[in-house]
Amino acid sequence: MNLHRLLQKRLAAGRPVRVGLIGAGKFGSMFLSQVPTTQGLEVAAIADLSLDRAKAACRNVGWTEERIAATRFTDDAMGMIASADVEVVVEATGHAPAGIGHARQAIRNGKHIVMVNVEADVLAGPLLAKEAEQAGTVYSLAYGDQPALIYELVDWARACGFNVIAAGKGTKYMPEYHASTPDTVWGFYGLTPEEARIGGMNPQMFNSFLDGTKSGIEMAAVANATGLTPAPDGLAFPPCGTHELADILRPGNLGALHHAGQVEVISSVHRDGGEVKNDLRWGVYVAFEAPNDYAARCFKEYGVVTDPSGKISVLYRPFHLIGLELNVSILSAALRNEATGAATGFRGDVVSTAKRDLKAGEILDGEGGACVWGRLMPAADSLRRGGLPIGLANRVPLIRDVPAGMPVTWADVRMDEADAAYRYRRDMEAAFA
Q1: Which of the following CATH numbers is that of domain 348-432: 3.40.50.720, 3.40.50.2000, 3.90.1210.10, 3.40.30.10?
Q2: Which of 46, 95, 252, 275 is deepest in the core (most CB within 10 A)?
Q3: What is the pLDDT of residues 380-399, one digit of tens each?
Q4: On the CB side of 26, how many CA atoms lie within 13 Å of its CA?
């Protein structure tokens, strides 16, 4: 990719790439840990609701007091985005409505935006990416997080001339996880509440990883960026090890896929609770097909693992390094004016789905909460149903009962129609309907 070489040219010219980070949580901290060893990249400013917490995060990852003193800390993210010394904005809050506001401010000010906040991307990324393109700036998924890594694998396969059969990631899945709440989550992880508290773990955040919401969000981002599509019933989470990926990830009656060109998440455990051999719990994959008999023969000659037909194979990466890899997105935007993945259409959506029988008058508590989980579905189905996106399901009152397992719709809730994120989402729906 030559990013390091290009960065050294910028450094030699006395023009380091200067970054503004919004949110110094786990992902942001992992990025910050790499800054001292990346010559030519500087953090001009860090915006966080707690300046003390942000400075503590810097110290925790090894920053010197001199580097901290040379960095501007602020609780005014909008002002930081507009400042002249910021070239690339990294949005790492995880709060979907805030992320939309920050991204739009970056685009208005001619700044590149790296959207760690995949919740915001799934809520309105297609319209944000379109606005950025029109403004001549880069709107990008965050490298190191799984959607951008999957995007890279899909791009590799297509650039080589292979037809992509499926792409996705691994996770630990059981059907009962969909009903998990912040009160029950630690039992599924094999932790006590006290162990989780000592580890500084947020139960609602970890519950969003467990109950299927995060998988749905990430696969919607992949679908919107790559053109792959969800199955009609969403994610099936087939148990699958790396040694059997090529055999299982086939469409129709031959394998676990609904159709060719699908996003799917594979499980690291069988439905009986047994562990899958050679699981891909932390990794990502792309399944692709040889375009002709000659290519299939080359697969065999070079020891490529395939399905029984010899035509379908899989390339996978066994792990991802989260914020430790974020520099790739930042430098790609600043030095090559390219995104490491961005929505090109509205193909997948994540709809709030009742974890239990919900009653009118209850207040939804958002992603990872006790009321709803986020189900992946084709965007066309979400629009037809009027599905309530998971990114807007927080602190929203129900005005109608919703049975367990059913999607929550716009008609089931009372929305603040003056809310900027709500209006932008509705604009996105209209633009991509």
Answers
A1: 3.90.1210.10
A2: 46
A3: 999 999 999 999 999 999 99
A4: 12
